[in-house]
Design a protein that fits this description.
The chain has 15 helices and 18 strands. By secondary structure, the chain is an alpha/beta fold. The structure holds glutamine. Catalyzes the conversion of xanthine monophosphate (XMP) to GMP in the presence of glutamine and ATP through an adenyl-XMP intermediate.
């Protein structure tokens, strides 16, 4: 039963573009772009042996990657990729790999490296640009990130676009549908990049545009049922955020109460959060949920810890302890009942951007940062408890939201701002005490309510109130006070990788300050953080 493949794989139902990943930070964007065109795409490591595939792709994209093709350790594609006789598009490293395969002296280290914008000019032959550039401006702004380059045109190819520093910015084969480009069409900085990828997939590969989010739901449910079998039980952690709720809802649709959701109340949740999540998940969505109140253990353990990383580590570790205890209880209950299956599976329901850095080809795609959601828990549950991993993590935030709507999740939940795993503990700067958590929680409640009242919630990527434990002097009712400072933070962001502070009008900020100082005892100052990311981060710790 273990790891048995489901009967119907999406690549058997839909025309599928195969993305071979050489470890670029943007590889996942390629599959995402394909989904935007209603085309199914599957990403596999670049070293995939192609004769092992049980299906045929309609086209192959070779991604970018951090290596240089001529390095000893550089990864290489199975040479059979050209024998499949399907269209090929090489991007950056993918371009260099394609050229290197044809002849090793085709690629060299460049003297003029290109990072950032470049102006691309598509070449016209008898008045026409190549069909890869159909519908695009002759001059387009593209985004580059490379040090190596083609030394010469590989045999059988011609140039279809140039930039000032790249004589071979895009090349195409004279007779076959084989293309290679030095820039990255998958990033939003490349204007018209989407159209180029669509030209490749739709016009050149002839992929049928039949994939939909609804079909994704059906597919995923079928996949879960096949994997888990008629009796298997699955365990998963939920936080009340949209990602884990969507994952839990899919599990519930697939296997009902054989999915066990566990939520740990670490004492640092938002106001009324535990009750609200319980209500939504159990009453509204029918999910089998256990809420564990471990707030005392967390708050006790946090005493005296001031370093942000130590706080995160403590909370992560404690979470795992509590989760393990709970697993034991669920397992004992299952063993003592006439329920057949033991818990065999652990659900990993995180978003793609959370895992980009840790799952790309051969581990790190040049590690950027690790993420609390993908930290120790899955490893412990799989290696430590012998559970098998179910992964639902190929989608991006906006896609997860669309999926959530498809599954009937309430709009408020679908649009909910992200909330960090350690919660308010990292929004109280320095030492966490129950009093400080309560003050930050109350301030956050008022701030978010006022944002909602103004109708601004959905325009903001993430907003919250944090507490600065250094105090300031104030005057209240003619009396001198010496109290905490609340820091408000609200950012606009496309992908949470970069962000700007939200431009509230000053009247609104003044109203928030009044409400918080009036309603929340212990606060006499409110400030607004106007730092962008970078150099700031979204959270303060
Ligand atoms: N490492 C290669 C270079 O510097 C490819 C880079 C990439 O794919 N972005 O040219």
């Amino acid at each position: 039963m273990a790891n048995k493949k489901p009967e119907i794989e999406p690549h058997e139902l839909y025309d599928t573009v195969l993305v071979l990943d050489f470890g670029s930070q943007f590889s996942h964007l390629l599959t995402r772009r394909m989904r935007e065109f209603s085309i199914y795409a599957e990403m596999l490591p670049c070293t995939q042996k192609l004769s092992d595939l049980s299906w045929s792709p309609v086209g192959i994209i070779l991604s970018g990657g951090p290596y240089s093709v001529y390095e000893e350790m550089a990864p290489h594609v199975d040479p059979a990729f050209l024998d499949l006789n399907v269209p090929v598009l090489g991007i950056c490293y993918g371009m260099q790999e394609l050229a290197y395969r044809l002849s090793k002296d085709n690629v060299v280290a460049g003297t003029a490296r290109e990072y950032g914008h470049a102006d691309l000019k598509a070449t016209r032959v008898s008045g026409h640009v190549d069909r890869l550039f159909e519908g695009l401006e002759d001059n387009m702004r593209v985004w580059m990130s490379h040090g190596d380059k083609l030394a010469k045109l590989p045999e059988g190819f011609h140039t279809i676009a140039i930039t000032r520093n790249s004589e071979f910015a895009a090349i195409g084969h004279e007779t076959k549908p084989i293309y290679a480009i030095q820039f990255h069409p998958e990033v939003t900085h490349t204007i018209g990049g989407n159209q180029l990828l669509k030209n490749f997939a739709v016009n050149i590969c002839n992929a049928k545009q039949s994939w939909t989010m609804a079909s994704f739901v059906d597919q995923t449910i079928a996949r879960i049922r096949k994997l888990v079998g008629p009796e298997g039980q699955v365990l998963g952690a939920v936080s009340g955020g949209v990602d884990s709720t969507v994952a839990a809802k899919l599990m519930h649709e697939a296997i009902g109460t054989r999915f066990h959701a566990v939520m740990v109340d670490n004492g640092c949740l938002r106001l009324n959060e535990a009750e609200q999540v319980k209500k939504t998940l159990t009453e509204h969505l029918g999910i089998n949920l256990t809420v564990v109140d471990a707030s005392v253990q967390f708050l006790d353990g946090l005493k005296g810890i001031t370093d942000p990383e130590k706080k995160r580590k403590f909370i992560g570790g404690k979470f795992i302890d509590i989760f393990e205890e709970e697993v034991k209880k669920i397992e004992d209950a299952a063993a003592n009942s006439d329920r057949a299956g033991k818990i065999e599976w652990f659900l990993q329901g995180t978003l793609y951007p959370d895992v980009i850095e840790s799952i790309s080809f051969k581990g790190p795609s040049q590690t950027i940062k690790t993420h609390h959601n993908v930290g120790g828990l899955p490893k412990l549950m799989t290696e430590g408890h012998g559970l098998k991993l179910i992964e639902l993590r190929e989608l991006f935030k906006d896609e997860v939201r669309e999926l959530g709507r498809n599954l009937g999740l309430h709009e408020d939940l679908v649009m909910r701002h992200p909330f960090p795993g350690p919660g308010i503990a990292i929004r109280v700067l320095g030492e966490v005490t129950p009093e400080r958590v309560e003050i930050a929680r109350q301030a956050d409640f008022h701030f978010i309510n006022m944002i909602r009242e103004k109708g601004l919630y959905n325009q903001i990527g993430q907003a919250f109130a944090a507490l600065d434990p250094s105090r300031a002097v104030g005057v209240m009712g003619d009396k001198r006070v010496y109290q905490y400072i609340i820091i408000l933070r609200a950012v606009q962001t496309y992908d949470f990788m970069t962000a700007n502070s939200y431009p509230f009008d000053s009247d609104f900020l003044a109203e928030v300050a009044t409400r918080i100082t009036n309603e929340v005892a212990g606060v006499c100052r409110v400030v607004y953080d106007v730092t962008s990311k970078p150099p700031g981060t979204i959270e303060l710790e």
